[in-house]
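[Structure tokenization] protein backbone as discrete codes

[Encoding] learned vocabulary of local backbone shapes

[Begin record] amino acids and matching fold tokens:

___
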Amino acid sequence: MTPREPAERQLERVLHVLPLAAREGGESLAALAAELGVSKERLLRDLEEVTARAYYLEPPVDIDISIEQDRVTVW
């Protein structure tokens, strides 16, 4: 079993990615991962966790993350 990554690192990545992907046209998943020095798979897991946790907040956070053809878009 691999050790868990500190939550601070994941939070830093998410806070970096969301505004970039919210720009018109979104952002390339590969470019974001390279900029952050992580694999595309790691970044995808980060984004999946964001959407999963958004529904547990009170009131629920309305965030849409789309990943299509290697582009990440946030609304």
